[in-house]
Amino acid sequence: MKTFDCIIIGGGILGCALAYELGKQGKKVLLIEKDYPGAGSTGRCIGGIRQQFSTPGSIKIMMKSVEIFKQMNDVDWHQGGYLFLACSEKEKSQYLSIIKTQQECGLSVKYIEKEEALKIVPILNEFDFIGGAYCNTDGQANPFQVLKFYLDGIEKTGGVVLSNTKVVKINVNNNIVDSVITNTGDKFSAPTIINTAGPWAKEVGQLVGLELPIEAERHEALITEPTKKLFEPMIVCYSPSCYFQQFNHTGQIIGCYTPEAPEKGFERSSSSEFLPEFSNRILKLIPALKDLKVVRSWAGWYEITPDGSPIVGETEIKGFWVVAGGCGHGFMFGPAIGKYTAELICEGKSAIPLEEFSINRKFKSKEAMK
Ligand SMILES: Cc1cc2nc3c(=O)[nH]c(=O)nc-3n(C[C@H](O)[C@H](O)[C@H](O)COP(=O)(O)OP(=O)(O)OC[C@H]3O[C@@H](n4cnc5c(N)ncnc54)[C@H](O)[C@@H]3O)c2cc1C
Fold first, then answer.
1. How far is the CA of 199 from the centre of ligand 1 (A)?
2. Could you tell me the sign of the dihedral formed by the alpha carbons of 46, 358, 347, 191, in that order?
C-alpha cells in the first residue's frame, strides 16, 4: 500500500504520539524514520515532566500531558515534583509573577521559603538559595518506555512504521502537498504530511522550500550508578545552571546543565568540560553525592525556536504540517501535543487551542521557565 491518510516524518516522541492519536481517530498512518524510533533527541532526554511554564498555552498543554502520562502503563511514571530554586530576590519575584499565571490556569503550585524547601529535600546544601517554585504534581517517566507505549499503540491502531528510511524529497503540486520520496526510491502519497523531525525539522522543511526557525543545539547529560532514595523532585537551579533528578525506579541520578554559550549544530560527542563542570555544580547543591560514580555521559540536541515554545500547525503549503521545536521540553509536551494536533488535523479544532504555537506567530515573547 502506497497511499495513506497521513505521513509522519520522524519517529521521536512527537511523531510517535501523533501517529498513535491519528490512528485512534481512524486515520491510515505511515511513520517514516531515518534511523530507529528514539534515535534523535527523544532517546537522549532525561525524562523530566513539568507543568511549570510561563504561558497559559504551555501550562494547559502540560497539565493535559501529565494526565496522559499518569494513565500509561509500564513507563516508570513517578510524581516526585519539580523544585526551581530561587537564588536572588529577583528570581523570587519572577517566580511569584509566573506562579500567578500558573494558578490562574488551575495548576497547584506555590512559592516556598528555604525552610520548606529543606524539608522537601533535606539533603540539599544550605548554600545561598532563598526558596523556590514548587509543584508536587510534576514528575518523571522513562523516555524509552514511553516510546514503546506509543509504538505498541501505533501497531494496534493499524499504523505502519518504516525504520532506516529517510525522506529525501517531498512533492508539492499547486501549493498542495502530495507525496514523499525515500532514500530507498519508494514513493508514498497522503493529503496530510507532517514534519516531526525534531532537530532536523528545518532540513525537512527545506524539502518544500520553507525556512523553519528551528535550530539544533547540543546539550549534554550524565547518569550515575544507582543509590538509595535521596530526594524526590527534579531540582532546577539557574545560577549556575544545573538540573537533575533521581529516577524513582532505578535510584540513578540523571542531570544536565545549559551551556552559557549555545552550541549550535549536530555535534554529539561528549565534551571534556561537561563531566567535571556538572559535578562541581551538583556538589554545590548536594555535597553528599561526592562518592557517587558516573556510569555514562552523552550529548543530544535541543530543537530551539526563537521564543522557546514548539511550532505546531499547518504551514502555507496545504496539507504540510510542522510539529517540532520542543526546545528541550519536547518529551513532556509529546502526549498532549500529539493528542491535540490529531484533533486539529481530523476535526479542524482542538479541545485546547494550539494558536499560541502557530508558525505564523511573532516569536516575540520568551518562555521564562527553561
Ligand atoms: C540532554 C537532553 C536532556 C533532555 N531532557 C528533557 C527532559 O527532561 N524533558 C523533556 O521534556 N525534554 C527533554 N529534552 C528534550 C527532548 O528530548 C526533545 O525536545 C524531544 O525528544 C524532541 O522530540 P521530537 O520527536 O521532536 O524529535 P526527535 O526525538 O529528535 O525525533 C525526530 C526524528 O526524526 C528523524 N528524522 C529526521 N530527519 C528525517 C528524515 N528526513 N526522514 C525520516 N526521519 C527523519 C530523526 O532520526 C529522529 O528520530 C532533553 C534533550 C536533551 C538532548
1. 7
2. negative
State how far the Cα of 278 lies from the Cα of 295, in Å rounded to an integer.
14
Q: Cell 555521559 maps to which residue?
A: 297
Q: Are 42 and 12 in contact (CB under 8 A)?
A: yes
Ligand 1, pocket-test mutation among 35, 42, 323, most atoms within 8 A of CB: 42
Distance between CA atoms of residues 68 and 137, nearest Å: 13
Average pLDDT for residues 248-256, to the nearest whole number?
Answer: 97
Q: Which domains does the chain have, with CATH numbers?
A: 6-44+144-214+307-357 (3.50.50.60), 79-137+215-303 (3.30.9.10)
Nearest in space to 332 (alpha carbons), one of 140, 101, 84? 140
**Dist. CA 49 → ligand 1 center (Å):** 15
What pLDDT was estimated at residue 367? Answer: 87
Mutate to test the pocket of ligand 1, among 7, 34, 45, 46 (most ligand atoms within 8 A of CB): 45
Alpha-carbon 91 to chain mean position: 24
Check if 13 has its Cβ closer than 6 Å to any atom of ligand 1. Answer: yes
For the ranges 10-19, 43-52, 360-369, which has the lowest average pLDDT? Answer: 360-369
